[in-house]
Design goal:
The chain is α/β, with parallel strands linked by helices and 661 residues long. It contains 20 helices and 24 strands. Keywords: Membrane, Transmembrane, Transmembrane helix.
C-alpha cells in the first residue's frame, strides 16, 4: 500500500486509473448480485396476489376463501410513503409521498390501503369507491376494528352525517378507535368512506332525509338496531351500541369492564338519582324506562336469546316501538339481585344479568342539560344522550352546540355579516324573589322574550347573526302535568334552561318564503363566543356598544370616536340611524350591545315589520304542563306585552288550543 501511495505521489496517473476501474467493477458486480437475490425472494406482484386489486371481492365470514387478502398492518413499511403519527392520536396515521417517490417519474403509483386496516380519518387515496359488496358486515370486518374483544357501533342515514362525524371525533379524541358505523343509505356510506370513517352497508335502502321522532321511518330505524345487534352478537365480540344523537365525553370501556359478569348494561330515563357515586343505579329504585340509546352487550347465551326474542317480538308487531319491546322483555323477570355483584339483577328469563348505568354520568338530556347532576355530585360524565328535548333533530343538535360538544363545519364559526350579541337584563325580583310558580315563571320568561324579540329585529336590520343570550327558567318542561319541577330531582330553581324549552329551534331554522316572512334571521347558541372552535380573529374583532340616554351631550353619535373598541349609542334611535351608524363598522366581526332595552323605535317600513312579526311569532313554543288539566300546556306569546289581558293560562276550549298566531 505504501509503494502504491508513493506511485500516486510520483504522478503515475495511468496506473492509478487502472486500479480504480477494477475496484469499481467489483463493487458494481456485488450490488447487481445482491439485487438479483432480493428480487427472486420477493412476493409475486401479479394482480392475482394483490389485495387492492381484489378489493371488490365479496367479504364473507363463513367463506374465508372468498375474502380478499389483507394488506400489511399499519406499522409495516409502505413503499413510496412516509408515516406520521398525529400528536395526541397514536392510532391516527397520515401518509405523504417520500422525496424519492416524488422525484422519480417512473415510480409506481401509490397503492390504497385496505379499508379494514386503514386508520380512522385517513382519507383513502383510491380514485374510485370499492364495490358495494365490499362493505358488507362480516366477522372479519369486526375483527380488524375490535380491540380487547370490544366493538363500538352506531348507525344512521345521511341526515345524521354531522352527528356521526361528531360521535366519531369524540371517540378518537379519547384515543378510542375500535368503532364501526352502519350506513342506512349509499349516500352516507360514500361520504363516510371518503372521510376515512370505517363504515359498513346495512342494506336498509333508507331515505336520506331526517326521520322525525315517532314517524314510520323512525320506527324502521329503531328496528334496524335490533337486527344489527342480532347480526353482531354471534361474531363473539362485546358490543357497545349507541344512537347517533349522543356523544362520548370519557372513555367508557374501563367502566364497563368493571362489571364482567353483566350480560347487558343499559342506560335509562331515570331522572331521580339512586346513587351519589359512579356505581350502577340501584335497580330497585329505578322508575324510568330503560333507554336503548346507550347499551352494552356481551355475547353470552342469555344476551343472544334476549336479542333473538326481541327481534321476533318486533317482527310480530310492526307497531311496537323497539324500546318498549326491550323493556317488556327484560321486565318479564326482574329480581333478585345477583349475589356478590354491584347492583346487577337477574332479568328477562331469570338468567340474564342486567345492570343499569347511572344517569348521573351516562347522562340523559335532563340529567345533563337541566339538572347538571354530574356537576352537583362532582362526578365526571362519560356520555350525554340528547333525550328530553322538544325541537326534533334540530333541537338535539342545538343542545350539543350549547354544551360546546358538537363539531360543525368551519363556516359555522364565522358569518358573512358578522355577529350580534347583547347582555341580557333581568331584575333580581323576576329571577329570585317570590314563589316558583306559573305566574313567576312566565313573568321571568316573558321579560327575556321581549329582549330577544328586539335583538332579532336589530340583527335582521344589520344583517348579522344573533348570538342568543342564556335563558333562565323557574319551571321545568315535560310532556305531562307536574308541580313545576319533578320531585326528587336535583333541579335548581331558577336554572339555566335549554333554548328548546322556550323557543322552537326547528321552526327558527325553517326556510320561510321571504315575500311573506321577510329575510331569514340566523342565530347561534348562547355559548358560541366561548367555544374554542370560533376563530381568534372573530372573537377579537369586537365592538362594545354602550347604550346611553340621547339627551346627554356625550351620547351624540356624530361626536363619538372609537377608542379601544368602544362606542356609545343613544337609546330609542330610529331604524335609519341604527343602519347608518353601524354600516360604518361592518369590519367588526362582533357587535356586543350593553342592552336591548329601548334600543330603537321600531321598523320604519310597515310592510317589513309585518313580515318580521309573521316570522318571529312562530319562534316561541309552549310550557307543559299544569297538573290535572287537559289540555294543561300554556303557549308563549312573542307579543305578550301588546295584550293587556294576557295571562299564563291553558286553553279553556279545544278551539282556543292553538299558538297565538
Amino acid at each position: 500500500m505504501a509503494a502504491w501511495c508513493r506511485q500516486c505521489a510520483e504522478g503515475k496517473p495511468l496506473f492509478v486509473a487502472t486500479y480504480a476501474v477494477v475496484f469499481g467493477g467489483i463493487v458494481l458486480s456485488a450490488l447487481f448480485l445482491l439485487s438479483t437475490l432480493y428480487s427472486s425472494s420477493s412476493p409475486s406482484s401479479s394482480s392475482g396476489d394483490n389485495p387492492f386489486l381484489a378489493f371488490g371481492a365479496r367479504l364473507s365470514s363463513s367463506s374465508p376463501s372468498s375474502s380478499p387478502a389483507l394488506p400489511p398492518h399499519e406499522d409495516s413499511v409502505v413503499t413510496g410513503k412516509t408515516k406520521e403519527i398525529s400528536e395526541g392520536s397514536p392510532n391516527v396515521t397520515k401518509y405523504t409521498p417520500s422525496v424519492s417517490a416524488v422525484n422519480r417519474s417512473s415510480a409506481p403509483a401509490l397503492q390504497p390501503k385496505h379499508m379494514l386496516t386503514r386508520a380512522i380519518w385517513e382519507v383513502p387515496v383510491d380514485s374510485k369507491l370499492p364495490a358495494l359488496k365490499a362493505f358488507r358486515l362480516t366477522k372479519e370486518m369486526v375483527k380488524h376494528r375490535a380491540k380487547d374483544n370490544v366493538i363500538i357501533v352506531t348507525f344512521g342515514n345521511y341526515a345524521f352525517m354531522d352527528f356521526i362525524l361528531t360521535w366519531v371525533k369524540h371517540l378518537t379524541d379519547l384515543n378510542v378507535f375500535n368503532l364501526l358505523v352502519g350506513a342506512m343509505d349509499v349516500k352516507l356510506l360514500e361520504a363516510l368512506y371518503w372521510k376515512g370513517i370505517p363504515v359498513f352497508d346495512m342494506g336498509s335502502n333508507m331515505i336520506t332525509d331526517d326521520a322525525g321522532w315517532g314517524s314510520p321511518t323512525f320506527h324502521k330505524m329503531g328496528r334496524e338496531k335490533v337486527f344489527l345487534i342480532n347480526a353482531l352478537l354471534p361474531f363473539g365480540y362485546e358490543l357497545l351500541m349507541c344512537d347517533t344523537d349522543m356523544v362520548w365525553l370519557k372513555n367508557p370501556l374501563p367502566y364497563l369492564a368493571r362489571f364482567p359478569d353483566a350480560d347487558v348494561l343499559t342506560s335509562s330515563d331515570q331522572v331521580i338519582p339512586t346513587v351519589t357515586d359512579d356505581s350502577l343505579e340501584s335497580w330497585k329504585e329505578v322508575t324510568g324506562a330503560y333507554n336503548i340509546g346507550i347499551f352494552h352487550w356481551r355475547p353470552t347465551d342469555p344476551a343472544i336469546r334476549l336479542a333473538k326474542e326481541w327481534r321476533e317480538l318486533l317482527l310480530a308487531n310492526e307497531k311496537l316501538w323497539d324500546q318498549s319491546g326491550f323493556n317488556d322483555l327484560v321486565h318479564k323477570v326482574l329480581g333478585p339481585s345477583v349475589e356478590g355483584e354491584n347492583e346487577l339483577v337477574y332479568a328477562y328469563d331469570g338468567t340474564l344479568k342486567l345492570g343499569i348505568l347511572p344517569a348521573s354520568i351516562f347522562c340523559s338530556g335532563h340529567t345533563f342539560f337541566v339538572q347538571a347532576v354530574h356537576q352537583q355530585l362532582r362526578l365526571e360524565p362519560y356520555a350525554v344522550h340528547t333525550t328530553f328535548q322538544y325541537a326534533g333533530t334540530e333541537g338535539k343538535r342545538h343542545r350539543l352546540r350549547e354544551g360546546m360538544l358538537f363539531f360543525d363545519q368551519p363556516s359555522y364559526y364565522d358569518s358573512p355579516g358578522g355577529f350580534l350579541t347583547f347582555s341580557p337584563s333581568i331584575p333580581k325580583s323576576l329571577l329570585l324573589d317570590g314563589a316558583h310558580n306559573i305566574e313567576s315563571h312566565f313573568s321571568l320568561v316573558n321579560y327575556q322574550i321581549k329582549q330577544v324579540r328586539t335583538a332579532l329585529a336589530v340583527a335582521s336590520l344589520l344583517n348579522r347573526t344573533l348570538v342568543m343570550p342564556p335563558l333562565w327558567c323557574r319551571l321545568d318542561r315535560m310532556w305531562f302535568g307536574h308541580p313545576g319541577i319533578l320531585e326528587g330531582t336535583l333541579t335548581k330553581q331558577p336554572f339555566l334552561c335549554p333554548m328548546d324549552h322556550i323557543f322552537e329551534v326547528n321552526v327558527m331554522l325553517k326556510d320561510f318564503p321571504e315575500a311573506e316572512f321577510g329575510p331569514r334571521i340566523e342565530f347561534r347558541e348562547y355559548s358560541f363566543l366561548q367555544n374554542p372552535l370560533v376563530p381568534k380573529q372573530v372573537k377579537e374583532s369586537l365592538l362594545e356598544v354602550q347604550l346611553c340616554d340621547d339627551h346627554r351631550t356625550k351620547c351624540t353619535v356624530a361626536n363619538e370616536t372609537i377608542k379601544n373598541g368602544f362606542l356609545r349609542f343613544p337609546k330609542n334611535s330610529t331604524q335609519q340611524m341604527l343602519m347608518r351608524v353601524f354600516s360604518s363598522y361592518k369590519d367588526f366581526r362582533v357587535l356586543r350591545f350593553s342592552s336591548m332595552l329601548d334600543i330603537f323605535q321600531g321598523f320604519a317600513d310597515a310592510a317589513r315589520e309585518a313580515k318580521f312579526r309573521n316570522r318571529v311569532k312562530r319562534y316561541v313554543g309552549l310550557w307543559c304542563c299544569v297538573q290535572f288539566r287537559t289540555p294543561g300546556h300554556i303557549y308563549y306569546d312573542m307579543y305578550w306585552d301588546e295584550k293587556p289581558s294576557w295571562k299564563p293560562e291553558p286553553p279553556q276550549t279545544s278551539e282556543e288550543d292553538h299558538p297565538p298566531w
